[in-house]
């Protein structure tokens, strides 16, 4: 008899590279817990000496252990229907939109985490480009607050996470209601979905 798996997400107590996976697990109603380990003491226990790490336990003898935040996200997103499982072309398009955020995140880490000001202009340019292109994509999909169809998918979740980070860093001037109305609509829909799941849990 197969039982539904349980997950452990091991990460630091910050949104960072774990946030999209947390949201996917919550929206999916998966059984999961988070562990914030002592660091660097825990470092050698991870596959590549970095976090996040996902552990899936399905009742078998061996746990499934996965590293690399975007791989973890994709694994969970595919498993729980936030990436198309029956249309490889649609899945690729969904992953393409998500991948757009990776460069911006890397630059934001340099500017805000490593205090490397030389990347600030590139980050700003990257954000402006994403906002321009993604507003177009969202408009093409009917300005309904989703990138694909009429439901929440993987890139919606990551867009929400990225906008949140920009707000935390007070770098969201190019993603406000006025210059990014459709991204803001998307943000509110993801926020609402997260709140609904949280309310049900209580
Ligand atoms: N490409 C990796 C990067 C992982 C990474 O840089 N993790 C950082 C935290 S955000 C980390 O483990 N830092 C602690 C260390 O390197 O000792 C991923 O996306 O998972």
TrEMBL record:
Record CDD domains: GST_N_Sigma_like
InterPro entries in the cross-refs: Glutathione-S-Trfase_C-like, Glutathione-S-Trfase_C_sf, Glutathione_S-Trfase, Glutathione_S-Trfase_N, GST_C, GST_superfamily, Thioredoxin-like_sf
Cited PROSITE patterns: GST_CTER, GST_NTER
GO MF terms held by the record: glutathione transferase activity
GST N-terminal domain mapped to chain residues: 5-84
Stretches assigned to the GST C-terminal domain: 87-202
GO biological process, one term: glutathione metabolic process
SUPFAM superfamilies tied to this protein: GST C-terminal domain-like, Thioredoxin-like
PANTHER family the record matches: GLUTATHIONE S-TRANSFERASE
Name this polypeptide is given: Glutathione S-transferase
């Amino acid at each position: 008899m197969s039982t539904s798996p349980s997950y452990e997400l091991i990460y630091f107590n910050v949104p960072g590279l774990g946030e999209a996976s947390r949201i996917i697990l919550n929206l999916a109603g998966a059984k999961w817990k988070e562990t914030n380990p002592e660091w660097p003491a825990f470092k050698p226990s991870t596959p590549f000496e970095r976090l996040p790490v996902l552990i899936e336990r399905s009742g078998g003898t061996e746990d499934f252990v996965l590293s690399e935040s975007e791989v973890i996200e994709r694994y969970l997103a595919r498993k729980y229907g936030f990436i198309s499982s029956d249309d490889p072309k649609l899945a690729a398009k969904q992953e393409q939109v998500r991948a757009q955020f990776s460069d911006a995140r890397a630059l934001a880490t340099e500017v805000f985490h490593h205090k490397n000001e030389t990347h600030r202009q590139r980050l700003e340019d990257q954000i402006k480009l994403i906002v321009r292109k993604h507003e177009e994509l969202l408009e093409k999909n009917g300005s309904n607050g989703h990138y694909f169809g009429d439901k929440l998918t993987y890139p919606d979740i990551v867009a929400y996470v990225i906008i949140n980070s920009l707000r935390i860093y007070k770098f969201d001037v190019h993603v406000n209601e006025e210059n990014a109305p459709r991204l803001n609509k998307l943000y509110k829909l993801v926020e609402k979905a997260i709140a609904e799941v949280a309310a049900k849990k209580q």
